[in-house]
Design a protein that fits this description.
Largest sheet of chain B: 6 strands, mixed
Number of helices of chain A: 2
Shape of chain A: globular
Structural class of chain B: alpha+beta
Shape of chain B: elongated
Order of helices and strands of chain A: EEEHEEEH
Largest sheet of chain A: 4 strands, antiparallel
Oligomer: heterodimer
Radius of gyration of chain A: 15 Å
CATH architecture of chain A: 2-Layer Sandwich
Number of strands of chain B: 52
Structural class of chain A: alpha+beta
Radius of gyration of chain B: 38 Å
Number of domains of chain B: 6
Strand order of the largest sheet of chain B: 43-44-45-42-36-46
Bound molecules: zinc ion
Helix content of chain B: 10-25%
CATH topology of the largest domain in chain B: FAD/NAD(P)-binding domain
Strand order of the largest sheet of chain A: 3-4-5-6
Largest interface: A-B, 30 and 27 residues
Number of strands of chain A: 6
Helix content of chain A: 10-25%
């Protein structure tokens, strides 16, 4: 039971959330210009990182808003959470600061 | 009533003024308040409490608490019956009625034939070897095992007790209320921090309750406990939770604890749950879970009367029970001497102390010598004698390195063997939290080395579980870490002074993992390692010889540590034996993973109040009570309860549905359509948004006009459908399927938030704001006209796919001319609070037209007659609009909508995709089963090449025959073909048709 920091509501129990897999996978602006392989990749191919990872979460049973979290998928350590549209923080910098 | 022959004349934390009667395996006994079932049984000289899992050997009480592997009991009767409880943890109450769990065929009588048969049955890896070969014998084995193995019995009916959940967010959670935990709680509590102190036992104090040789500030350890508990109880921010086992430690300092609220009372207490599950999110955690003693592994070390040394001491000191009248202590550790001295102090003559150390020394050894106790230094126990109770041991001097005997054995008579193989820190919770362990070669045990996540799960281990064996140091560490934990949460106070502690000094110990005997391991007796699962040193040797290297594999192969006790007494011994066989050291073999729960926890506690009607919300419409009063049969649609059909007296379901279907076309049918999902879509970009999420065009929909839409996902597959109406330029009323409403709202919100944040659109679920009565049939316009004088209902003024606002029977209403039956139809939407009033007015006014309420079954038949799909029935997540023959709803003009690019992937354009068609059976009265497989070439038996399956199938009274819809490979090109549906015992021939069966020209919708 992880404690997920919603950027609007604050830290809440993970039972309130849904997981939304890899973050920063934008829907192509002009889908018709994408090849079949590119469309398949957009639909189905997601990174399965072991370690710090930018991923989406939805505060389903709270504010119902989507946001992004930098979280270590192995240790479950959480380094940052931020609103959609905000740039992805530098993961190396975040995790390095932690180790120091 | 029995006389408790082993009860000591005085002492113990029991109330001798409160005798309690109880039954065990049908016999009556007496104990005292303060006893556990185990201490009361021992007081009554009952050592034999079970039969072993595989070999069916007599077994006695081994431990004092959670570690107990043998004394598993089934408590109470009927639907309150609970298996797998440890007699050592069950508090005695008057009228307690328990059965030993492992006793087949009978606790008292050995069955030689069974024993020897089982002997051959259960080598190491028995389960694997049996499952592998011969498979046919497994059924036979299983029957024997189920009888032999004490797995307990589940009650047959629902649990009548109530369970509750509590959520807590303490600053500091302290697990364990022994000396370290109490000290930590005191230091943290004095800062004013919000503290929870939980202990699995009824009484706080831990080891101090079982030791009479520890003095704190000049008083007995128990007096110090009482003082500390009294101070903690006076602190308003401190919550004391006795009888509460913290059994799971999850991410980010989330812990689960089960509180036994009434179990010790043995009766139902009004307005009180039986147990409470505490869900605790702690800012700081202090683990003070103590140690568990290790058994010694020697030949036939499982006879009743062989128990852990601290357990034997605890029964005497804490419960005033002599676990034996002639005890023998076997130890490589000074702590064993404390047990010998405790018995000697109670006037019980020791049979001796067998000490693995060749040259024991120190204060405790001197004290034992002074008491005249015979000390056999450098000796081993080579074997034991006895049947249902240990009667003696064979001892002999060992060689220098402890690998063999130096002298011939001699027998010592005794009725209790108290064994001390050293201590394992109770690192279960620490390890569950993913902390790293380290092998401490001095202590010969695993100790905490590194906390997993100091940022999100800050925690400290203090006292025994951190490898600290002295009370003085445990209290010092408890004070320090308890205060630091509180300070980390922002509370502070001065550090309490550490009390002066007098306790026996503990010197160096000697560990011998398997005591040498005059016979090799595996011959003429068994060296038990895991008592609960009957795993012996020979089994572990065999596993290592068969090539198992990892302890995780050895564990699964031999089942060591896999019982309900999770190997609390066996895991480290097993590791050491495997390491020795492999010729490697213990850390190289690794340690097994500790998993929650620490002790078995009843499922009822996890369920809490989330059972029965509270398991999942049941949603009902405003007209629900009318449906019930009028005999509706219901079906679940998502969380909704919907009327399925309304049988009249004596009607079958088919008769009722036929009647409803006829009335809905020829007279007036009325359907409670309130459950359809409704989403209010508003904002200046609302039309643009709909244009992106539906496959057809929305920009030019006129105000007051309705349009049917298919919603796809970006892979191109149909996910939902419904009619959306434009209420204003920037305002739409969307409907979804009943079951899909929440998913659709989520899908829309996600795209608005993450892909198109530039669109100004606001979504509001309004499903429950509206009650919807849908009326249809030849007379429905007449019915509505009689109740509505402010809407012109003519086709010209109010055409199909339009919405009008007005009043119906004086109720403000939105009336939609949309139809799911193909019949002239009005869907009357009124605010929910008017739903019942509207329904009753319609029923009364419709009487003369033969108004007939119809349920979901008739609705399904009526829409199928017209070939309308149901998402989730004709579709399954892999069906496109093209497959459904609905190309007309896919916009060619729009550059993009969700699903457009996906639809043009090559696989979705293949001609042999499964496509929606109608099926007509050769025999018009034959109704195909939904899910029936469709084939072209019928073979005498499967397998056959399957072309698809029946998605909907009904008897249609309006068509005068059965009708069906199906997904069939290349179905659109097969119209007119004859295919077959093979069923059990027969094959039904069908003709492929268009999926429209009634009113082919669609003229009835205008009445
Ligand atoms: Zn939130």
């Amino acid at each position: 039971m992880q404690l997920i920091p919603c950027p609007w509501c604050g830290p809440r129990d993970d039972a309130e959330f849904h997981y939304g897999a890899e973050a920063h996978v934008a829907r192509p602006a002009v889908p018709s210009e994408r090849s079949d392989a590119e469309w398949e990749a957009y639909l189905y191919l997601r990174r399965n990182t072991k370690g710090p990872f930018a991923e989406r979460w939805l505060h389903t049973n709270g504010c119902r808003r989507w946001f992004n979290v930098i979280r270590d998928t192995y240790t479950h350590e959480i380094f940052a959470s931020y609103k959609p549209g905000e740039p992805m923080p530098d993961i190396d910098q975040l995790t390095a600061k932690k180790d120091a | 009533m029995s006389r408790q022959p082993n009860r000591l004349p005085s002492g113990g934390r029991i109330d001798r003024a409160m005798p309690l009667g109880f039954r065990f395996d049908g016999r009556s006994y007496t104990g005292y308040a303060g006893d556990t079932l185990a201490s009361a049984l021992l007081a009554n000289d009952v050592h034999l409490v079970g039969r072993s899992f595989k070999y069916h050997r007599p077994r006695g009480i081994l431990g004092l608490g959670a570690e107990e592997p043998n004394a598993l009991i089934q408590l109470a009767r009927g639907n309150r019956s609970e298996p797998n409880l440890r007699a050592t943890q069950v508090e005695l109450f008057d009228g307690l009625d328990a059965d030993s769990q492992n006793r087949w065929p009978c606790l008292k009588y050995d069955v030689g034939a069974v024993n020897s048969a089982l002997h051959r049955l259960f080598p190491a890896g028995f389960y694997y070897k049996t499952f592998m070969w011969p498979a046919s014998l497994w059924m036979t084995y299983e029957e024997v095992i189920r009888n032999a193995a004490g797995l307990g019995k589940a009650p047959e009916g629902p649990d009548p007790d109530r369970y509750e959940h509590m959520h807590a967010h303490p600053d500091v959670l302290i697990v364990g209320a022994g000396p370290a935990g109490l000290a930590a709680a005191l230091a943290a509590g004095r800062t004013g921090a919000r503290v929870i102190l939980a202990d699995e036992q009824a009484e706080f104090g831990g080891s101090l309750l079982s030791d009479d040789d520890v003095f704190i500030n000049g008083k007995s350890g128990r007096d110090w406990v009482a003082e500390v508990v009294a101070e903690l109880a006076s602190m308003p921010a401190v919550t004391l939770l006795p009888r509460t086992c913290v059994h799971g430690y999850f991410d980010h300092n989330y812990l689960l604890a089960a509180e036994r609220v009434t179990d010790h009372i043995g009766a139902v207490v009004p307005n009180t749950p039986r147990q409470r599950l505490w869900k605790i999110r702690a800012r700081q955690v202090v683990l003070a879970t103590g140690t568990l003693e290790r058994p010694l592994v020697f030949r036939d070390n499982d006879r009743p009367g062989v128990m852990l040394s601290t357990a034997a001491r605890g029964y005497a000191v804490r419960y005033g029970v002599a676990a034996g009248r002639r005890p023998l202590v076997v130890t490589g550790h000074d702590d064993g001497y404390r047990t010998a001295l405790a018995y000697a102090a109670r006037g019980i003559q020791l049979a001796g102390i067998v000490d693995l150390r060749p040259d024991p020394s120190g204060a405790l050894v001197d004290a034992a010598r002074e008491k005249g106790i015979d000390i056999l230094a450098g000796h081993s126990v080579a074997g034991t004698h006895g049947g249902h109770r240990v009667e003696g041991v064979d001892v002999a001097e060992m060689n220098a390195d402890g690998t063999g005997l130096a002298k011939i054995t001699r027998r010592i008579d005794c009725d209790l063997v108290a064994m001390c193989g050293g201590f394992n820190p109770t690192v279960h919770l620490f390890s569950q939290s993913r902390g790293k362990l380290r092998w401490d070669a001095d202590m010969n045990a695993f100790v905490p080395a590194k906390v997993h996540d100091t940022t999100h799960a800050p925690q400290r281990s203090v006292g025994g579980c951190a490898g600290v064996m002295s009370v003085a140091q445990s209290i010092k560490d408890g004070i320090k870490e308890g205060l630091e934990a509180a300070r980390a949460t922002g509370s502070t106070a001065r550090q309490p002074a550490a009390p002066a502690v007098e306790e026996p000094g503990i010197g160096a110990h000697r560990t011998i993992w398997v005591l040498p005997s005059d016979k090799p391991v595996g011959h003429k007796g068994k060296h038990f390692v895991d008592f609960q699962n009957d795993v012996t040193a020979a089994d572990l040797n065999l596993a290592a010889r068969e090539g198992y290297r990892s302890i995780e594999h050895v564990k699964r192969y031999t089942t060591t540590g896999m019982g309900t006790d999770q190997g609390k007494t066996s895991n480290v011994n097993a590791l050491a034996i495997v390491a020795a066989t492999l010729g490697t050291d213990i850390p190289a073999v690794g340690t097994t993973t500790f998993r929650p729960p620490y002790t078995p926890t009843t499922i009822g506690a996890y369920g809490g109040r989330n059972i029965g009607a509270l398991f999942d919300p049941v949603r009902t419409t405003a007209v629900d009570s009318w449906h019930r009063a009028n005999g509706a049969q219901f079906e679940h649609v998502g969380q909704w309860m919907r009327p399925w059909y309304y049988p009249k007296a004596g009607e079958t379901m088919r008769q009722a549905v036929d009647r409803e279907c006829l009335a809905a076309r020829n007279a007036v049918g009325i359907l409670d359509a309130s459950t359809l999902g409704k989403i209010d879509v508003r904002g200046k970009d609302a039309a643009e948004f709909l244009n992106r999420v539906y496959s057809n065009a929305w920009m030019k929909l006129g105000i007051g006009k309705c349009r049917y839409g298919l919603m796809l996902n970006d892979a191109g597959f149909v996910m939902d459908d419904g009619v959306t109406t434009r209420l204003a330029d920037d305002h739409f009323h969307m409907t979804t399927t009943t079951g899909g409403a929440a998913g659709v709202l989520g899908h829309l919100e996600e795209h608005l938030q993450t892909e198109w944040p530039d669109l100004e659109v606001y979504l509001t679920s309004v499903t429950e704001q509206w009650s919807v009565a849908s009326i249809c049939g030849a007379k429905c316009r007449d019915l509505l006209a009689a109740l509505c004088d402010d809407i012109d209902l003519s086709n010209e003024a109010f055409p199909f796919m339009a919405m009008k606002e007005g009043t119906v029977a004086g109720i403000p209403a939105r009336v939609y001319r949309i139809s799911f039956t193909g019949e002239l139809s009005f869907e009357i939407n009124v605010p929910r609070r008017y739903g019942m009033a509207l329904w009753e007015v319609l029923m009364a006014a419709g009487e003369k037209h033969g108004i007939t309420p119809y349920g979901t079954e008739a609705m399904h038949v009526l829409r199928a007659e017209r070939g309308f799909i149901i998402v989730g029935q004709e579709t399954d997540g892999s069906v496109t609009p093209i497959d459904l023959g609905m190309d007309w709803i896919v916009s060619k003009q729009k550059v993009d909508f969700i699903g457009k690019r996906g639809l043009f992937r090559p696989d979705l354009m293949l001609p042999d995709r499964k496509q929606l068609v109608g099926l007509l059976t050769e025999d018009p009265s034959e109704v195909l089963p939904e899910g029936g497989q469709i084939v072209e070439d019928v073979k005498p038996a499967p397998p056959m090449t399957m072309l698809g399956h029946v998605t909907s199938s009904y008897y249609s009274v309006n068509c005068g025959r059965s009708i069906a819809m199906a997904l069939v490979k290349g179905g659109h090109a097969r119209k007119g073909d004859t295919l077959s549906v093979p069923l059990a015992g027969k094959t039904v021939k069908v003709t492929v048709t268009d999926p429209v069966f009634f009113d082919l020209e669609g003229s009835r919708r205008d009445g």
